[in-house]
Specification:
Layout: E1 2-9, H1 15-21, H2 25-36, E2 43-48, E3 52-59, H3 63-72, H4 77-80, E4 85-88, H5 89-101, H6 112-127, H7 132-151, H8 161-172, E5 180-184, H9 188-198, E6 204-209, H10 212-221, E7 225-228, H11 232-235, E8 241-244, H12 255-264, E9 270-274, E10 291-295, H13 296-364, H14 369-394, H15 400-409
Parallel strand pairs: 5-6, 5-8, 6-7, 8-9, 9-10
Antiparallel strand pairs: 1-3, 1-4, 2-3
């Protein structure tokens, strides 16, 4: 049996292909059980996210697994094989370690993949397809990821607009938890920002949108309140943080609105993020003394600096991974010798028991104990050395390799 990793990801396959090979959480158990049936694999785990579907297996070869994947998804091999990658042995181990560490992610160093891998391992363990080899592989991958994150800068910098917005807000306000937050819009970017800000547990979250039902749907996810976009002017002054991203072709937050809010707030600062293109906030708003306004370009600079720092950490991360790969492969090689060692010990134990019985019978007959012990030691020595001695005598051709091996095995020293 050999170790293999095979699958597709955001680099090798478009979304139209990835979605056909994706496994939802509720069907993973059924898929793993089906894959393990028929002796295709010895061990297996499946990781399926929006960016990748990967199968980690211990099997004779990957061909049977690839064929199963096509059959299970009812896709011809020709439709998926151009997008598939297969990594054996060392490359398989390295790939798993890189995935866990965030080096193979769409966003370099993102931490979410580690939680997704742990869930994949949990499911495989429940199904019974996670054996000693894969369990050891994943436990090592989690340790590698922890080492990479704690000793390199791979995860210490901002690499998303939403995370950058939170980080900038924390420069203005000591505690986000004390602030009132307004999101204008209900699209994907607002959803991401709301997720990041909600994690800081602000005092209030309000979502304003032209379609109040869409705003309410998003608000329900974050224990927030939804209002109509037209209501923003009436309550704008109560918000400390404002994040806006709509599809409006004209600014929806004007200079006059913000000036009135500043007076009502008695010059308490307002932190504003305008992620819209074209802009939602009039440019002049950024010139007000008590307003901290950041545009999508401002956040992009924060993200870019974070990415550059993360990229510089990749070299250090790869060095850690390379060392851990060697260690895991060394463990894997020792596993291959376990059956031989077990057989050797069983053989020695059988010989020991047989000779003990012979010696005990001699003692029961009244034979001299010293003589019995001497015969016991001689008979054991002869039995233990019979096979290697015979192999050395019967060796054909160049015996030097076998002699060197015997010298190493028995720790011999020539005078």
């Amino acid at each position: 049996m050999a170790l293999f990793t095979l699958g597709i990801n955001h680099r090798t396959a478009p979304l139209s292909v990835r979605e056909q090979l994706a496994f939802h959480a509720e069907e993973l158990r059924r898929a793993l059980a089906d894959l393990a049936s028929g002796g295709r694999v010895h061990e297996a785990a499946i990781l399926s996210t929006c960016n990748r579907t990967e199968l980690y297996v211990e099997a004779e070869s990957p061909q049977a697994v690839i064929a199963w994947l096509g059959d299970y998804r009812r896709l011809p091999d020709l439709d998926i094989e151009p997008y598939l990658y297969t990594h054996p042995d060392r490359d398989a181990v390295r790939h798993v370690f890189r995935v866990a560490s965030g080096l193979d992610s769409m966003v370099l160093g993102e931490p979410q993949i580690l939680g997704q891998m742990k869930e994949a391992v949990r499911i495989a363990k429940e199904v019974g397809t996670l054996g000693t080899t894969l369990n050891k592989l994943f436990q090592n991958s989690f340790a590698v990821a922890k080492d990479v994150r704690s000793t390199t800068a791979i995860g210490s910098n901002i690499v998303s607009m939403a995370a950058a917005a939170v980080r900038l807000a924390e420069r203005i306000f000591e505690r986000i938890a004390d602030q009132h937050v307004l999101f204008i819009g209900a699209g994907e970017m607002i959803e991401l920002c709301a997720t990041h800000f909600a994690a800081k547990k602000p005092r209030q979250i309000v979502i304003a949108n032209r379609t109040v039902d869409r705003g309410r749907e998003l608000a329900n996810r974050f224990d927030a309140t939804a209002i109509r976009l037209e209501e923003v002017g009436e309550c704008f002054a109560q918000f400390d943080i404002v994040v806006s991203c709509t599809a409006s072709q004209l600014p929806i937050i004007g200079l006059g609105l913000v000036e009135r809010a500043i007076k009502v707030r008695r010059h308490r600062p307002i932190f504003m993020v305008d992620l819209a293109v074209p802009r939602d906030v009039e440019v002049e708003v950024g010139e007000l003394d008590d307003v901290f306004l950041y545009t999508v370009d401002d956040l992009a600079q924060v993200v870019e600096s974070g990415l550059e720092s993360r990229k510089s950490a990749v070299v250090d991360a790869e060095a850690i991974i390379a060392t851990r790969v060697d260690a895991f492969l060394a463990w894997l090689q020792t596993r291959e010798t376990v059956p031989v060692i077990r057989s050797l010990r069983d053989s020695a134990e059988r010989a020991r028991r047989h000779e003990m019985e012979h010696a005990l019978k001699a003692l029961a007959k009244g034979d001299d104990p010293a003589s019995v012990l001497d015969q016991l030691s001689q008979r054991l020595t002869n039995k233990f050395l019979h096979a290697p001695t015979q192999a050395l005598h019967q060796a054909e051709g160049d015996r030097s390799e076998l002699q060197a091996l015997a010298t190493r095995l028995f720790n011999l020293h020539h005078d």
